[in-house]
Every structure is written in C-alpha cells, then in structure tokens.
Structures
1.
Amino acid sequence: MIRRLGTFLLVAFLTACGGAWNDPYPAAERGRNILYTAFTERPKHLDPVQSYSEDEAVFLYQIVEPPLEYHYLRRPYQLRSGSAELPTVRRYDAEGRLLADDAPAERVATSVYEIRVLPGILYQPHPAFARRPDGSPRYLDLRPADLAAVRGVGDFAETGTRELEAADFVYQIKRLAHPRLHSPIFELIAEYLPGLKALQTQLAEAAKQEPGWLDLTRFELPGVEVVDRHTYRITLQGSYPQFIYWLTMPFFSPVPPEADRFFGQPGMAERNLTLDWWPVGTGPYMLVENNPNARMVLARNPHYRGDAYPCDGEPGDAEAGLLADCGKALPFIERVVFTREREGIPYWNKFLQGYYDASGVSSDNFDQAVSLTSQGEVTLSDDMTERGIRLLTSVSPSIFYLGFNMLDPLVGGDTAEGKEKARKLRQAISIALDMEEFVSIFLNGRGVTAMHPIPPGLFGAREGEAGINPVVYEWRDGRPARRGKDVARRLLAEAGWPNGRNAQTGEALIINLDTTPGGLGDKARSDWLAKQFRDLGVQFVVRATDWNRFQEKMRTGNAQLFFMGWNADYPDPENLLFLLHGAQGKVKYSGQNAANYHNDEYDRLFEQMKTMPDGPARQAIIDRMVAILQHDAPWAFGFHPKAYSLQHGWVYNRKPGVIVRGTLKYQRVDVAAREAARAAWNRPVLWPIAVVLALLAAMVAPAVAHWRRHERATAAEVQR
Amino acid sequence: MFAYVVRRLIYAVPILIGVNLLTFLLFFVVNSPDDMARMHLGARHASAEGIERWKVERGYDKPTFWNAEADGAGRLTDTIFFDKSLRMFAFDFGSADDGRDIGREIRDRMGPSLAIAVPTFILGLFAAVSFALLLVFFRATYLDFWGVVACVAMMSISSLFYIIGGQWLVSKIWALVPISGYAPGLDAARFLVLPVLISVIAGVGSSVRWYRTIFLEEISRDYVRTARAKGLSELVVLFRHVLKNAMIPILTGVVVVIPMLFMGSLLVESFFGVPGLGSYTIDAISAQDFAVVRAMVFIGSVLYIVGLILTDLSYTLVDPRVRLE
C-alpha cells in the first residue's frame, strides 16, 4: 500500500514538474506569453470609487480606463488622451461671462470641463452585458439557486459587451457620493462640486428605504451632465486646474450601470461577487482570477481598442531601446500572473531563478544586487550582469521629512522673540541632521536629500546651485555641501541654547521625537539621531506610540518633532507645497499640514501659484515660496526616495515612473529567452538525494547491527 | 459520558463569553471605532463627517455595552458588543472591514492550512514516537547519547533557520521543489513537500526528547519485564506494550492540538506563500480589522475547548480505568 502510494506521488510529482522541478507555475503555462510578477500586500479595494493605494493601482489601472493618462515615456510627465480626448476647459465669471485663459483665479466663478469620450471603445466581456434574444439582461433577478455553483464572474456561461458611453462616466461620478462606498476623495471633490454633498444626502435617505441596489441614474447630480452619447460636462465651482490630474485616476473612470446592478443582486456580495472584487472596464486587461491570498491573474481584454506604442519620449529612450516598438498595437502580453509573496527571501530567490520577470531591491538583497563604484555610482553586481539583469532607477515623487510642530512652544515659539529663537533652533537642527549619512546608512543610498518639498523632475524643482537650500548647504566645488556643525552650534547659541543649555537657567535642551514603533524610532535609527543631536549638546528622547496614538498626537498638536512622508497624487508642485499651507493646518482644520505651519506670505503665494499654468511666472512664485520655507524651516527636509527596480533581459519597454501606473500594456516579454534561461538556471541537482539516502543508511546500519546483536544476545549479555 | 460532554460544553459558554469580552476590551482600548474608520478611509482625505458616516454604516456608532436609549432587550442587544461579538455564537462572523464575508474566507483558507498541518502533524508524530522508542531501545549506548545530542541541537535552532536554509538548499541550490507557492488539488503536493519536511524536522528534536522521557519511565515497569520474560522481542515490547501504556501523557499533548491544526502556521504559511488561516489573523491585526480578529480569536477558543474535551474522551479509549462522570 505504502509502495503504491509512493509510486503515485512520485509519478504525480514528476508529471507536474515536466520542465524544471522547482517551477512554481502549472505546466500548461509553459512557453506562453505571460508576465510573471509578485505582490506583497493584498489589494483591499478594486472598486474604482474606493481604491486609492499603490497595492491596488497595479491591478486596477490595467483594467479600467480613466478619461486621461500620462504619456508613458515623456518626462516631465505629460497628459494625453485615455478613454477620452483631452478636455476643453472654459471658465466663467459670476455673471456667466466667458473668461480668457489667463484671467486671475479670483474672477473665476465656474470652470466647465467638456469631455469627449473616444467612440467605438468596448467593455471587456462580462455577464452583466449578456442579453437574452429579446434584449433583456440575461443575468438579472437571479435566484439563490442560480448562484449556488458560482464562485467568480467566469462561472457565468454567457457574456456580452457594449460601447462605452459618456453616461458611464457620469454614473461613476455619482458613485463618489454613494453612502455605502465611502470614497476617499468625496470630501475633496465635493469642495469643488457642491452638488455631490446634496446627492449624498439624497442617496443616504434612499439607501434607508432601499437596502439593496440603488439605481443612481434616477438621481441628478448638479454640475455633471451628459451632453450627448459621447460627451459629458463637469462644472466645478471656482478654479481648480489640478482637477485635470484627477481625471487620470480610476475615481473618474467609467462604470457601466448594468455591472453595478448585476453585482447588486441578492446573494452576490456573499460570494464576493462585487465591483470591489471584480472591476469592470475597457482597459487592456481584465481580471480573470481573484485570489488575493495567493494569486491574481489578468488576461488580455479581447475588446481592447489597441492604442499604439509611443514613438517619442525623453532623450535616452531610443538608446535604451524604449522606442523599438513604436506604433505597434498594445498590449503585447497575453496574461499577467501576480503571485502573493509575503516574504522578501522567496520573492528574491524566485526572481533569481527566472520565475519573476522583475523585482525591487530591498535592503536584504541590496549588496547582492548592486555595487558602488569608486566614484559612488550605483551599478549592478557582476552576478546580476552575467544573468542579463538590468537595473532601473528613478526618484519617486515623494518626500520624507522631519516636521516640527509649530504649535509647540520650544520648536515653534509662542512670542515674537520666541518664534525667532525657535526658527534658529529649527535651522540648527536641520543642519545638524546629516541626511546624506542617513540615506547612505539606512537606505543604501537609495534616496536624494531634499532641499525643499518638491522632488526632482517635477515643475518647480530647480537643479544645481539655484536648487540648494542655502540655510543648510553651501555650493562648494560644483556640488552642495552641508554646512558644518559649527554653524549649527552658532545658530543654537543664537536661539538661546549655547551648547544645548538654556542661556539663563542652564537647563538642558531636550528634543522629543514622536514616532511609531518600527518607524524612525527603531533602535538603530534613533541611536543615529541621538548621535546627531549629541554633537550639538542636545538631549534626544524618542516617544514611541502605536499608530493610532501617534495620529491622535498629531491631531491634537501634542507632538514636537515627527517623521512623515507624502507621495504626490499628481506631478504638480501644488500637491506638495499644500502640505505647508496654513488652511491645511492639522490641529485647526484637520488638514495635511502636520507641522501646523502658518506664514501669511506663503499662503498668499500658494493661492496665487496653485491656479497658474507652468511657466516663468509660476516658477518665480515657487522660488519665493521655497525660500520662505527654507528660511522658516518648519521641516528638516529629509529625502526623496529613489526606486530601484531589476528586470531580466527578456523583459522590454519597462520605464520607471511612479506616476504612470497603467504600464503593463507597454511591456513585452521574449518568452523563448525566458524559457531557455529558466532551464539553464534550474537544473535539478540529484546527487544530494543519493547522499541523504546514504547518510540515512549510514545512520540506520549501526542501529540495525546493534538491534541484531541485542536480539541474539543472552540475558546475561544484555545485562552486561 | 454524554452528560459529561454536555456539561463541558455548557461550561464552555461562559469561557467563550469571557474570551470575547477580553478580546473586545483589549481591541477597543488600543483601537477606537474612530481609529478603525481612519484606517479604513485612509489618512489623506478622511473628514470628521466621513468618519461618522463610516461608523454609522458599520454599526460602530452605537453604545459599547449598554444602550440606555433603547427599550427592553434592545438595551443590551442594540450595542456594539452584542452586535459584533455575541452573534458569533451562531457562527455568524459577518463581514471584514473590506466588506468580504469572513465565513467564506475562513472556509477558503482552511484547506491550504490543513494541507500543511495534517501531514506535518501525522508525520511529525510518527517520526517523533518512532525515534523516541528507538532511542529507548538503544538506551545507554552511544546511539542514544548522540541521538539526544542531535535532538538538543535540532531543538536549539530557530525554525526560521530551517525554513530559510531549507528553501536556499533544496529549492535554490538543488532546484528540487518550488521555493514557495500553492496550487489546488494534487498539484499542491510539490509545494507541500518542503514545508512539511521542514516543519517535521524543526519540531522533531523537542518531541523526541519529550517522548523518550515518557518511554524511559515506562520501560522500567514490571509489565515490561514480564513481557520480556515471555520471550517477546524488544521491538514488540516497545511498540506494542510500552507505547500503549505511555499513551495518556502522549494524548495529553497531542489531541489538544488536533483541532488547532485548522488555525494554520503563521511562519510556514508566510514563507511558503500558502494562503492559509495562519496569515489571515496577522493580516487582520495589521489592518486593524476587528471583525476578523474577533472571529479568529473566537474560533481559536472554540477549537481549544473542543481539543480539551477530545483529550478527556481519548483517555477513556486508551485506559479503561478512566471513567468520565
């Protein structure tokens, strides 16, 4: 029996393993045009009205098509047509008169975005579109018995499609106000689209009466209207030029009411058949397998419109081979398989075995993947180069900073004289915290020290000498050099704390860092910070609390020094400079200005800058705003993280750029090269099995011999 | 025996209510409904109104334990505690914060967890008992000495080392099995070989030592001498008589963990990419998903109590002298 079972298992094992024994994928997938990648965090929401995180974007942006998208190759980032043409924007004053493009923002009463949807776009095949011969929906009014054997949308026998219409975009905008969906951007958009709040009140009332699906087409949303089958119009209150960037996000992608109604039927939610689990779109891919605990699979949408691969980009793209597929129809890859990897070690090893086509570089495998030249340049290690692996790097549109709570009497000041002294104290700390060393030690150099809130590559960020923070750096030998600790000590003395002691009382200066465990307060980092402060004679205390209490401290203004970060939603300096706008004060207005910084001139300039088009005038205002921040130092500007990504030589057309998220349609895989590499890198080594068996035999043999001796021995011999 | 089981089940009810209450209190001390709402809505654009709406929608706007504004039984039932915790006694776990059905998730994840836990349990038990009996057989010889040394060495090494080392050696260097992953059906076998093997090896050292101690105590009993005097071979003496008589302490440690096999193993599931229940709880704690945490704690408590009852029942099977009254 045992022998039979063993034979069966061996046969099953070898059958499954057909190629390399350690191939984690089914044999049926071998040689197919599939991209293999991994995800670490399970997506929480795939409903385009709720989804707002990077973990989800990697799936959702391939499935749904917002009206606009970013050009894949051009930098700085440039908007282009997605599922709709670039909108025409008309602005009107309070009397309804059309204003010129350069009219000041304060004169703008309404901004009208007229958006024309590209004709002929079809939705992915979906049961919600399936029709009976009489034209009625095939899967409506389903009984529980009809759903008994259903586990995914693929279990419905019939599917259908239809053309994308302007009404689908309007339907989705109404969903932002749905009381059961809790869209994360509802409040923000409602500021400019006041009809949204009124709609939410109506929907909340209706939801009480009707516990099931709510037909949003019955409700009007003032400010959003369908003009014709392929055109819709959004009327915003005032001027909000950044709204156009929101049109690149799934919040504004089309949702067909049929799909919403289909998933709203009783019994669907219990089977995880919801829009949140199975998004419906017109994008290049559709979700065909959704098991966020193990594997997510996207398959090519057979109805995709097939836009063309771009023919131009930024300098260097042609040399990098990024223009070789110019004009070819997208997407190139048939399926994308995402496997969940919670731990970095298996993820990394499977990448090295060729089972993942691309990987990030974590601190654990940094030394194995990357080496630094004597000039400090980052290059691939020899092992990686031999495998044909390529390294892609890009500075993320993000910033991490140490913020000072300006409401704190010590670092913010409470009198005019106190504020001036506090400013010098903040400047001294900004100089003393050697962020170059921090980036080098804790990030393996994967970051660019920040001079101000705007990351390099975004409009407003200057390069070279003009771009440095003159309070913290000086321009020396053609590069920024951090000012010495002597400057910091001088500023500290001017702040009333010579050598870290109160000039009057002799009391020691104590700076408290409020943080969460595992954040900046972990042992190595807090030791490093303490050393930086010690150099000034300042005592440093870490006050670590859990995330909820930390947030509470921030909301109530009870923090002193804190570490935070921000990823830009869109490539506009407004999305970073607003973090220090007075009207965003965390304590007063529950906004994003966690430092509670307030400067009248800065606020005025911000209001002016945010509605201006990019150009010299806007740059001049940004320069002034940046100078104010550098002088006031409400943050010790930390660093802009640098994303490192590795890809195998058989993957083509990958270009880093965090803002561009719908990237899979551009990528291409040389399947034959991958198969060859996998076979070469994963030849099973069989001798260890023989060695293990021999070792076992070696262990068993004396035992058997002993047992035989024991059994043959007389009682007297056993006693001996 | 029936009356005994019923009595134990009735005793379980206040224990489970207590566990529920404790979980509820501990969770709510560090994690208020406002915190949950903020976590769910995201820190970026969550407003006070948005948080309030979320709480109303999820039933977190009610009083915690006592609703003075309600009438009759509603004072007790129209509360967060009743709504979120007590209905679990009907195994109605409700939805996770992301709206997904917890019961369905548990059913889906139970299979992969059991696929690792059951073979690990059976093979581990078989290996540990066999090795322990062999060590007893070879007691006071160099085989026994080096066997114990090997067991001490094996139990001194972290299971993380076995996992990382095993993945590196077997999957990466020898390329014999996939490093991680999971597939349903028979294809799961090639993903399970390594985690099961590693789990057995990681646990066998301490188990062998424990069982060896039990068997050594048994081997000096009179009935063993009698069995030998009858002319039985040493293997028959050990595997038939000693093993049977040592079952009470073995069952005490073993039966209680059988129901817990459903709960899965966090470390093994994480490193081998197995979508089981072990990681479900940790994911829920990280995401502050109280609904999932309380469901998993409740199931853990129920399974533990069931394990204890089964242990008691198993005593009657191996020792006729034991009577449950």
2.
Amino acid sequence: MQSPAIEYDYTVAKWFSYLAILFGILGMGVGVLIAFQLAFPDLNYIFGQYSLFSRLRPIHTNTVAFGFTLSGIFATWYYVGQRVLKVSMKESKFLMTVGKLHFWLYFIGALLAVASLLVRYTTSKEYAQFEWPFDIVVVIVWVLWGISIFGLIGIRREKSLYISLWYYIATFLGVAMLYLFNNMEVPTYLITGMGDPLHSVSMYSGSNDALVQWWYGHNAVAFVFTVPIIAMIYYYLPKESGQPVYSYKLSLLSFWGLMFVYLWAGGHHLIYSTVPDWMQTMGSIFSIILILPSWGSALNMLLTMKGEWGQLKENPLIKFMVLASTFYMLSTLEGPIQSIKSVNALAHFTDWIPGHVHDGTLGWVGFMIIAALMHMAPRFYKREIYSKKLLEAQFWLQTTGIVLYFSSMWIAGITQGMMWRAVDQYGNLAYSFIDTVTVLHPYYTLRAIGGLFYLVGLFMWAYNFFKTMTASRAIEREPQFASPMAA
Amino acid sequence: MEDIRFIQGVAYIIFTIFLTLILYGYIIHLYRSEKKGERDYEKYAKMALDDELDSPPVDKRDEKEREKKLKRSSE
C-alpha cells in the first residue's frame, strides 16, 4: 500500500474535458455552416462579412485542431499521466498550480485567438494563422504543459514510463519544434514603426516558406491528430476492455518507426510544385513507409480485443474505440495512396483531400476523444454513465455522418479531378470550372448533411456527459475496467 | 550532373541498407533481451490495467529519490 489517504485529483482533467466539448461543438458547428455554404452560397452572407467562408474556414480548422483536439489531449494527459505514473496531483501544490494556470491561460488565449481570426488578423499560413502575440501565448501554454509533464514524471512512483507517456512526450517535443520553426516571423511595426502592431511577415519566403509550412502542416497532423491520439488509445482501450496491450514490443517498435518516418513525409503536399524533385519523391516514399508503423499501432489495438470481441456488441465505448482504430487504418492507407505522384496528379486540390482529412479527424480523433471523455466521466463524478442507449444512438448517427462525408467527398474529388484534366481531341479543356461545380452540388449537400449528423451526435454527447455529471446514479467505488452505464 | 546522380544513387542504397539494419536490429534486440531474461517488455502492459494509486508499481522507483523531488515541487 502506498498512500491510501491520497486520491487522484481530476480537477484539471475535468476542466479540459468541458473545453473539449465546448470547442468541439463550436468548431464543428462552424464546420457544418461552411459545408452548407459550399452547397448553398447565399449562406455566406447571413452575418455579413463575418460569415464569409474565407473568414470562417480558419476558425473551423483552428478550433477543432487546437481547441477541441488539444483540450482532449490535455484532459486525457491530466488523467492518464497521474494514473500510469501512480502519483496524484494533490501531492504537489506546485504542479497543481501549474496545471490550473495551464488551463486558464490556454482558455483565455484560445478565445482571444479565435476572436482575432474573426476580425481578420491572420498570417495567412494554413493551420498557423495566429499572429505573433498569440504565438507567444501558445509558447507559454506549451511550456506550462511541459512543466506539468516532466514535473509529474519527476515525482512518480512507477519507475518505467507506460507507452502512452512516450506518445504524450513526443507530442510535447514535436509540436514545440514545429511551432517554433514555422512561426518564425518579424512583427513589422516593431521594425519599421509603421502599420498594424499585430501584423507580421514570415522569415521565410517562396519555396522555402512552402517547405517549412508543409513540414509543419503535415507534422501538425502527426503530432496533434496522430501521436497523442495513439497515446489515448493505448491507455483507454486496454483499460475499458480489461485486456492488456496485445504486444508491448510492437508498441515500442511502432513508436520509433512513427517518430522517424513521419517527419520526412511533409513534402508530399508539394508534389509538382517548385520544390526540388528529390524532396517530392522523398515525401512520397516516406508516406508509403508510414503505413507500417501506423498499421503496427492500429493492428496492435485491434488484436488487443482478441478473444473479447463480444465486448464490441455490449459496450458502446469499445465500439467507438475499435472504429477509431479502424478509421486510423483507413486514413493511413488512403494518405499514402494520395501521396503517390500519379495519384496526386489527380487528387491534389480536389475534394478527395478534405474527404481524407475528415475520415481521420471525425473517425479517429473525434471518436477517440469522445470515448476517452465518457470513460473518464464515471471516474470523475463517481456516477454511472447516464444513458447507454443515447451513447449507442450517438455512435450510429455519427458513423453514418462520417460515411456520408467521406463517400461523397471521394466521389466528388475523383469526379472533379477527372473533369479538370479532361481534354477534347484537339487538347482543349473539355469542361469549364462552373461545370464541375454544377456536377458536385449534390455531393456537397450530402457532405454537409453528414457533418450535421456528426454535430447532432456531439450535442448528444454533451447532454450525456452533463447528465452523467449531475443526475446519474451514484456508484460506490471507481470501476476497474468497463464503465458502468444505465440502459 | 551524372556524378551527382551517381552519388545520389549510392547514398540512397547505403541509407536504405543502414535503416533496414537499424529496424531489424531493434526487433532482434527486443526479442533477444526478453529471451535472455534481461527484460520482460510485456509486463509493462499491466501499468494501464492496474493503475490504482495504492496498487503496487510494476517497477518501483527508489522512494528516497522520489521524496527528494516531491519535497522540491511542494515548496
């Protein structure tokens, strides 16, 4: 027995969970609106200039990536970190203060950053739009998280670090490096004494800027949408199912494989552009190799359920996580296929790309965060999950939404790519741009409906979480494995 | 130009062989150290399942070292 009087402290984990729900609804709400705008352009003007697609799209991407997903990552870190290190945050006043400061600075910083995009302050670098003062806030938030990670490791009882922690640490280090290098910028007012104090220009230009940007952009996918989500599934799936990871050795091998290979794959965003040809080829090759470590983790998770597939029928949280793992496999096969030069010639700039992104983010990232939060809820509040039926309904509604999303975008993207390259017998383009728009309209509508299904699912999730917190039946002790839930 | 192509080709082959050796070397290292009884990697999977604060750690850390760090972080 270690310290029977002390319990894990979930305060910061709870706060970040609330933020994940809030930013999830906000970010995906905006996503649904802009999806409908693509099908019905008049919706661009419902709030004047503030509802234009171009204004809202960065708000959608930044809110879901750096609001919803990061909140989910932080929430799970403050939960998983304590548990696998066997140390409570209550044991250190310093780390508790750092955790709370981390939350408040992140929350206020995120709200201001979103507001800044709404009033048009942007660096215009995709997924790195925040202007320089917000970049400084991001760095401080990140340093606070680092103190929290390494501080908690410093006072741990468990000597070895569980595989999930390797992935959380990699997230911390990876994002720190990427964010700093891609956001090297010169605040123009400080140098010239003129113009807007918030404005800046990148320290890179032309092809160099593109290279750094996509080294960052693709690895933001790696270290925000992949690495920390693997950290989650390596903890929550075994814990919820009561099954140890199928092969711990495979988890280590996949970890190092992923770390080495991912950083080289970003060049596939710049195929047929002005960057050197060998870099494009390298991006393609490393993307193909990336299938191995990605599938290593995903198969390891599916094999963890070996002999226990009955749980898939009984437990909606297992459903969410197994489907998340399956979507991870799907998107990590689809991405490498798109990065093959000849396929990229067709796929680049088409709707197949957002289709690919969304089966990864909605199916893998979203489902994993949803499952993680619902696994934690009974442990947070010592109450059973309010409604299993609601969770099941949410699962099926959102799965339908994702299928509608990616299938419509596959068809739209390939149709679009084929129409753009079609020529008549004299080599003239067979179609004008508006021809493609007309053909794609039904698919855009279907995609928006798919997104709406997913968003409705998020409201069901929020309701279920809130009722679990406030009105569900109390449980005497923390469940060891499967989360208790009322029918 | 031809020289550069040749160097690129040789470098490509050397890197491929080197990285393949590293990959297989690591796999062999994992299995061999388990076979020799130096490490039991699979036991670490228990860390997620048995994660109560009062359950015994898989690898217990030196308590004195922990106390020292804890004292510093509580000041």
